[in-house]
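Worked example 2:
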Amino acid sequence: MSDRFPICHEITAKWEGRWSDHKAGPGGKTMYGITEAVYQAWLKGCGLKVKPVRNISLSEAKLIYREQYWRPTAETFDLYPGVDLAVYDVAVNSSVSRSIKWLKPSAGSNDHSVIVKPICRARLSFMQSLKIWKTFGKGWGRRVANIEAKGVVMAVTAMGASGAAVKTIVEDSKARRRSRSRPATRSRKQPERALLPLVALRRPSTHPTLDSSTMWLLGALCAALVIIAAVAIAKKKQAKAREEAYAQVLA
């Protein structure tokens, strides 16, 4: 198989950008997606003078990407088109070890587009568990959606699907996601059930009062509803991001 590093890296590089020194970023000072720690360790390993990462050249960055992220993953496992992109982008963004970990459960399927999706789901789930998701989540979500869409299209195209077939596969995937997101309808109205137990009054009164345990239950219920609503909104936003990513790939 031909060298696909230039193709996949071009996609990843667009998400990595250029100079960054965000105070919440775990990598600190970064240029072309390469952190200062990684760059300086690479310079030392090459017997070169250590310098700030802001001075890294684009050719040096590409060498590091190929040696430290592409070679241990996509090249070592000789991954299929599309799968190589998904795994490589994880390696760059979330570590080589995680990219291999999330690849293994899905490896072996003859439909390589099927391998791409669970890798992206595992990646997104991991990202959402991080405290800095609230800071970087919007961009991360769009990135994962874009990588999934491009990876799936690469995979089905490499398997010999025509342009029309690729579009059909993507449209079917979108339709299934929409159907899963619709709430189930009931054939008949169900009687409402009490959510909370009856509460005992502390003392006779014309105005009933709630005891502390019931107040705690009410508070917990409200908190749970807020969390459920937040998760639902996040899933809806991510589904929209995925649909937009697929639409852009097919445009």
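The first strand starts at residue 30 and ends at 31. The chain has nine helices and two strands.
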